């Protein structure tokens, strides 16, 4: 649950930082987009919300809901 939340919060922080920088948040002069790309990778390889919820759900209920 902690892993799911901290990756999500990090993505939200990076998105907000890009938003605050406006057009500068998209150009290469600032590194926000690089952080966003890195975090999208982390979100994939550490487990998306879909996968984390399936794992947590199975642990709580004992029922595997994987398709
Ligand atoms: C930068 C990077 C480094 C990596 N390094 C390694 C490494 O060192 N070793 C290694 O073994 N692998 C590595 N990987 C691979 C990584 O483990 C997989 O990309 C990851 O497990 C997701 O699998 P996938 O890409 O097949 O996506 P998929 O499993 O196909 O997922 C695609 C989408 O489908 C959804 N989905 C999948 N299954 C279900 C389901 N049952 N129910 C609902 N939704 C579902 C997911 O949530 C996601 O949105 C790396 C990936 C990246 C991006």
How would you summarize this macromolecular structure in one to three sentences?
The chain is mainly α.
Let me know the average pLDDT.
94
Radius of gyration: 15 Å
- Rounded to the nearest angstrom, the distance between the terminal CA atoms is 21 Å
User: Helical amount among residues, as a percent range?
Assistant: 55-70%
In CATH terms, the superfamily is Butyryl-CoA Dehydrogenase, subunit A, domain 3
- Give the DSSP E fraction (strand runs of 2 or more residues): under 5%
- The helix/strand class is mainly alpha
Provide the low-confidence segments as ranges: none
Which cofactor or ligand species appear? Answer: flavin-adenine dinucleotide
Element-level helix/strand string = HHH
Shape: elongated
Count of the separate structural domains: 1
CATH-scheme architecture: Up-down Bundle
**Number of helical elements:** 3
CATH class categorisation? Mainly Alpha
Number of strands: 0
SSE order and pairing:
Elements: H1 2-20, H2 32-45, H3 49-61
Bound molecules: flavin-adenine dinucleotide.
What does this structure look like?
By secondary structure, the protein is mainly α. It has one domain: Butyryl-CoA Dehydrogenase, subunit A, domain 3. Helix content is 69%, strand content 0%. The longest helix is centred in the first third of the chain and has 19 residues, at 2-20. The chain is elongated. The model has no long low-confidence stretch (mean pLDDT 94). The protein binds flavin-adenine dinucleotide. Flavin-adenine dinucleotide binds at residues 41, 44-45, 48, 50-51, 54, 66-67.
């Amino acid at each position: 649950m902690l892993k799911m939340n901290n990756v999500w919060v990090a993505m939200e922080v990076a998105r907000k930082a890009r938003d605050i920088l406006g057009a500068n948040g998209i150009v290469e002069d600032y590194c926000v987009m690089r952080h966003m790309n890195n975090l999208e990778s982390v979100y994939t390889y550490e487990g998306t919300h879909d996968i984390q919820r399936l794992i947590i759900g199975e642990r709580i209920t004992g029922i595997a809901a994987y398709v």
